[in-house]
Structures are given as C-alpha cells and as structure tokens.
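Field reference: "sequence" (input) and "structure" (output). Example, Starch-binding associating with outer membrane:
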Amino acid sequence: MKKTLVIIFTLVMAVSCTEDFETININPNYPASAQPELLLPGIQREMAYNWGSQGWEEGFTVVQYGARLQFTSGDTYNWSPSGDPYDNAYASLRDVENIIRDTRENEDAQNYYGVALVMKSWIYSYVTDAYGDVPYSEATSGIENGNVTPVFDAQSTIYAGILSDLEMANTLLTDADNISGDIFYDGDIAKWRKFANSLRLRLLMRISDVDNATAVAGMTQITSNPSLYPIFESNDDMTFVEWNSDNPQPKYDTRSGSFDEVRLSQTLEKRLKELGDNRLYVFAQPTSNSEKGIFSEDFDDYVGMPNGLDDEAALGYSPTGNPDESGSNFISRLGILLGCRACNPEEASATASHTIIMSYSELQFILAEAAERGFITSGDAAMYYENGIKASFEYYTERVAAGGWSDITNAMQATDLDAYVAQDAVAFTGDSDDNLAKIALQKWISLFYTGFEGWSDWRRTGMPEVTPGPDAVNDGRVPVRFQYPNSVKSTNSENYNAAVQNMGADNINTKLWWDVY
C-alpha cells in the first residue's frame, strides 16, 4: 500500500513539475514581451539622446560648426574604435524588434507596427552611415534563435531594406491616432507618415550618386503624389524630442567644463558673418572678454577658433595673436540655447533646445537639390531653397523666444529675410553648380546640431569645404567613417573580418558605399 502511494505521488509530482516548468523558469524581471507603449518611449529617448550626444562630439567638429578647446583628439582626427552609436543602436533595435514581433500580425496594432518600422529605419540609417556594413538581416535574431554572431550585410542591402520598410510604413500607418507612449509626435499618426516619407527622401538623396535610378524613381513617387505620400509641410511637422525639466536637454546638467570644451568654430563664424546671418546670435555667445553676457548686437563680439589644434595650441590660442589675449575668455561659447546650468545658472534653459532628428528646413533643401539636378519635376528649386532658409530662421526665432531670451529673439525677428535671400552670396541666380553650392551651404547651416547629418551630407557632396586644422593627423584627411568597436572584433571576429574584406580596411578613411564624391 505504501509503495503504491509513493508511486502515485511521484507520478503526480512529475506531471505537475513538467506542466509548470516553463512558468516556474520564466524570469519575471525579463519578460518575453512588453507592451509597445512601454517600449516605444524608451527607444525614442535613448536614441535621441545618443543622436544629440553624437552631434555634440563629431557632429560639431568634423564639419566645423564647433572647435575643441580641450581634449582635442577628435578635432585632430586622432580617432579610436568607437562603440558609440553601435552599442546603443543595437540595444534599442532589440526593443524595436520586440514591437514588430508583437504587432505585425495584430490588426489592432498596425500603427505601432508602422511606427516601429520607421524607428528601425532611422536607427539603421544612423548606424550604417557611421560604420558602413553592419549586422542587419540577422542583427536581432538572437531574440528568437540565440544567434549572437550575426553576419554583416552590405550597406547597399541595408539601404534597400530601409527604403522598403519606410514605403511599407507609409501604407501601414492609418488615420486612427491609437498609439500612446510616443515622445516624438504624441501619437499623431499623420505626422509619422510625413516623417516616414521625408526620411525616405533624405536617404534616397544619400544614394543618388551611386544608385541614381532608385533615387529618382523613389523621389518621383513621393513628390508626384503628396496625398498618398505626405511629407513635412512646415516646422510643425519636423521630428524632434522636446525635453522637460525632469529630462532636460542633453547638455543642461553637464559640468561647466564639459560644455566649455566645444567652442564656436572659426569656419562657422566667418561664413555667418560674411552673410550677415543673425543665426550667429543663436549658435554662439559673445566672448567673456566682451562682458556682453549672452547677447551682443555687434558681430565683432563673437569670435571663433580654428579647428584641428592640438591641446597645447588650443588652450593658448589667441584670436588677435597677442599672447595676453589667449584662452577661453577670448573665444565664444556655443549659444545659450544649448547652455548648461553650471555655466549659465541664470539664463540656461532645460527645455528650449530640441534634439532635432529631421527638420522641415532640411527637407526643403533636399527637394531644392532634387529639383535643381532634375531628379523631380514637382515644384521649383528656388522656391524650395528659399523655404528652407526661411524655415531655419523661423525655427530658431521660435526656440529662443521659448527660452525667454528677449534680446536674441528681437534680433532674430528683426532679420529682413527678403534682403538676406536677395544678397549675391545667397540669391539663387547662378548657374547650376553655383546654385548647388548655395544649397549645400545653407543646408549645412540649417543642420547645426542635427546628429552628424552635416557630416553625412558633406561626405556625399564635398560641400561646403572642410579644411583640416594645422595639427590634424591622419595625413590631413577628413575622416569618412567610424572604426568598428573593439568588442565586435573579439566577439564576432569571423563576420567582422568578412565585412572588412568586403568594405576595405577598418580605418577612418574607407569610404562608405554611397560616398563616391
């Protein structure tokens, strides 16, 4: 009798343990899935913060919006292998893939699926434009099958996938505003469609010199049917993160020294002064030596420094050549719009500065170039060009007003935009080469602090000119890509080596697939 009861008890326990095995062994701290509205804001915040941080580093210095006063290795092209943005991108892409997996077949969640495809496309464009060939087709397969050594796909393959996903997202996104947790557009699906198509135009322009047929066909498809393929129509549609006091703009809480390491570049200073461009008031502050605070109507109080100085030369740089007038007091900080609380305790704003992912102004310059080069027949190149200039001025006027800086706001509002556009150095009245150079210059100005988008556009066009500084290494060549992270070389060496064989040497001078300038 006792033996029989022991056997029965053992069988019951065995069945019970087997039935409960999966439940018991699920880690509650790492759920297999999560609601998309909980995943989406984290993805957006982390990637926007990374994009903004990259804008502060290479984004400012490579194409010379800013110059380094201290720790100048980045400005002299003494670059090391970089895990940024690689690590952040793939950490976020895992969560993007979770949203896609859980919404793809759910008819009630197609807007989340469409938004996830747009986020996936933006993040992949960011990481591939940093490194070139990167994991794509197998990148997040570890979620499903444990593949932790994904292949590196050719950049051409990645772009094809991105462009296809953006086209699909435009179809998936409906008129129903039924998503939450969205810190880009607060659930406005119509604006997500505009972002999908505007981003697609950015990337089509990127490949226009290496795959012109695809670029022209895609641009024509979008611009010839605005009702089916809506794009940004004003600054209200642009993609950005508006920070709040609990999550302030990325440089607000940094220490004063970290903010002060980047100063106004002499390149940006000279170009804005030559144009009489009041955006100088927004992008820079008067020198401390001028004792004018955060604003002066006198352009002479704004002074930049050369790029590409070594540490000693940078710290001792004197704009006048007088050694008694050297150092940080005689060089302009970047504008109060980006100011940190420690260095401007009375004037800095936690919320006035946006982290811009893509602006309406940028889109207008893309369309201007497309029209000027004959890629599209919709619209007029001069119209797009002037729209881009005016949109940039209007955007920055609105942002300094939001920060409460009335003197800067008044100076921006007083700008005579018609006169600005009519001056010889700006007017769209030259031959095609001259007009394209003017588009490139105005687009470069408008891309101030937009990730490293200014660098990407320069790599594609070579405009406007970037002159390496006097202490630049790398044989005086401007870098055209990041090196892969060391961790990738050690943990995925076989596929890393295959990528290097496909692309060329893993150094900062190996051009990307679309970079044929």
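Residues 256-338 form one domain.
The two ends are 89 Å apart (CA to CA).
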